Amino acid sequence: MIVFDLACKKAGHVFEIWFGSSSDYEDQKARGLVMCPYCGSTDVDKAVMAPNVAAKGNRRSDPVPVPTQEAVPSAVAAAANLPSPEQFKAMVSKLAEVQAKMLEGSDYVGSRFADEARSMHLGEQDARPIHGQTSAEEAKSLIEEGIPVAPLLLPVRPPNSEN
Predict the structure, then answer these.
(1) Rounded to whole angstroms, how far apart are CA atoms 39 and 69?
(2) What is the pTM for the complete model shown?
(3) What does residue 46 show for φ and ψ, rounded to 5 degrees?
(4) What is the side-by-side order of every strand in the sheet holding 44-46?
(5) pLDDT for 17-74, tens place per residue?
(6) What pLDDT score was predicted for residue 23?
(7) Residue 44, CA distances (Å) to 22, 51, 65 in order
(8) Rounded to an integer, what distance in angstroms lies between the CA atom of residue 43 and that of residue 16?
(9) Secondary structure in 3-state letters for the chain
(10) What are the backbone angles phi and psi of residue 56, rounded to the nearest 5°?
């Protein structure tokens, strides 16, 4: 895995994305799949990154203070202007509500997702909203065939399943 800092040319947003390799980044960028998470622009490039080079261990004379476990989350959140755990939980809950509302008229097709989507795309069955599961490779294949698919942001429990 490799991480790149990317910069949105449209609005100047800078963000970080992980890729399997440099060639994965180039391939996804060429296909218009790399986009700014803030504004959705696909006009992005690699941003200048500072190398992560550790200091030699024999050069430090004073010990580095280690923050307590309790101080780390709040200090990190405050420094990065991140939501508190309670705010984050509320946001995820709201996101789950919105996703559930979006899926209300959609049929869960489970592992048959790719076959069903392809069949509808080819006109072999009537088009209808569906959701399910498929491998990353199969999703990539669907996209390459021009079949519109999108990942769900949160996992979905199949109908009639136990907790």
Answers:
(1) 35
(2) 0.48
(3) -65, 135
(4) 14-19, 2-8, 44-46
(5) 888 888 888 888 898 888 888 888 889 998 876 555 555 555 555 565 555 555 555 5
(6) 85
(7) 15, 20, 38
(8) 15
(9) CEEEEEEECCCCCEEEEEECCHHHHHHHHHCCCCCCCCCCCCCEEECCCCCCCCCCHHHCCCCCCCCCCCHHHHHHHHHHCCCCHHHHHHHHHHHHHHHHHHCCCCEEEECCHHHHHHHHHCCCCCCCCEEECCCHHHHHHHHHCCCCCCCCCCCCCCCCCCC
(10) -65, 140
Under 8 Å between Cβ of 54 and 36 = no
Selected residue with higher pLDDT from 41 and 78: 41
What's the whole-number mean pLDDT along residues 3-30? 86
What tokens appear for 128 in the block? 């209808």
Give 160's Cβ-side CA count (13 Å radius): 3
Tokens of 108: 């869960």
What are residue 130's DSSP bridge partners?
A: 107
